[in-house]
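Supplementary material to the annual report.
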Amino acid sequence: MADYRDLWKSLNIDLEKHDQLCAVLPEFFGDIYLSQENRPESMNYYNFVVSEIHGYRIKELAEYREKGGKVFGSFCVFVPDEVALAGDAVVVGLCGGSDFWVSDGEKVLPRNMCPLIKASVGAKVGGTCPYFQSVDMLVGETTCDGKKKAWEILEEYTPMHVMDLPQMKREKDKLHWMDEIKIFKEQVEELTGNTITKEKLEKGIKLINQKRKVLQRLYNTRKAENLPISGKDALLITQIAFYDDPNRFIEKTTELCEELEARIEKGESVFKEGTKRILVTGTPMAIPNWKMHHLIETSGGAVVCEETCTGTRYFENLVDENKDTLEGQIRALADRYLGINCACFTPNEGRVDDIIRLYKEYKAEGVIYYSLPFCHTYALEYKKVKEALDKEGIPVMMIESDYSLQDAGQIKTRLEAFFEMLETSKEAAVTK
Amino acid sequence: MNLQTYILFPSHTDGLALEKVLKSNEIKYTIVPTPRDLSKCCGISIKIDPDQKEKIEGLIQKNPDIKIEGIHTVERKKRNWFV
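Predicted assembly:
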């Protein structure tokens, strides 16, 4: 097997600790993913990416950096990849979805903090995430207090740029966000030494739009009556979209979509008839946080759509490609990005509309409102969402869970009861 | 017994080269992370149906450019992670 130890050593990875992480992945991925029946053959590409997640891609990044290329790491769907690409830089997502990193995070953060932040900070301070070790600069944002303060801790370890995301969507907020995009552009130019021209930004916008379009095409296949792909696989694909080379991702996901569309023609499904179609809404799920989808899909449900940052929020709406000035392009970027309905905004009625729209588009039968513990904005927003869904007669259940494995049995019992209610008396599942 | 056969490679390029050969011969395969009990280095392996082993060995012999690090058949036990 390829030996990546020298590469990891050069990145200052804690080899011993990292080895413990590597030891778990094959079995975990095998049991969660490879045990699924009738998986599309094109999933082999995503299996490849996961198998080599700390190898092949890291090697690519190292080779790119050796040639003088710069790598940005980001955590959030608000960081405009287009701008970094226009400076010939690469953008990658960062580690943050496993319990493995939480204990290292708790060394520098309070315990009552969401597991995503604890795991991410832990992955950096413990030196066990080769992505964190491969970035020349981290790009943070102000989507929540936890992250905001975590950046102040992370900047002791790595260069950091923070974008100040407004919390309202008025015209003056849009102007502010345009300004933030301009400052980020200058930062990219300074780090890479490359000037961002209108032509280069246009190329970046087109590429990322293409990635969004292929994800939209993938998600459209999940609207079919016979589901050609599991929600678990679709989640994995969106997660990988944050990491892998965009061109390769677009090519391979197009191949997958062709296979899925052929399955739809034949009426082939990966679920048996009567499986409950579930819309998941809430907080993002970073690799390898596959817990909720796995529990849903082994309890009589099928996830048909994710209204999350590792779902529709990542790729819905495109950036207008027809702007002929840099200023116009930056406005187009701001328009698209401020169209995302993250719970950090107030008011945030758009998210309620999205949930109802997606529920109908994907012919869902119930909604699971998933929230990571201590994620206040999403936990608080449940009340508004639930009231709106009750009015529409849409059944919803909130589940709050971190990355640990202990509460799985309890969650499974709740899910089974919820699905049974959807089967026998959908009205009863809507508590008013 | 749930037996699985894994083909290990010195590098991912050999794995991807064999993938092409298997695809063109319409043989079912799955790219998987290399099981820990077979190798300590993380990276890809190709999982095949144990019944296809001889046929695939023949194909590997016909393609000497593809280097492998062994073919192993092991019993695979499923673990319930979330209970």
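The interface with chain A takes residues 8-12, 16, 19, 29-36, 39-45, 47, 69, 76, 78-83 of chain B (CB under 8 Å).
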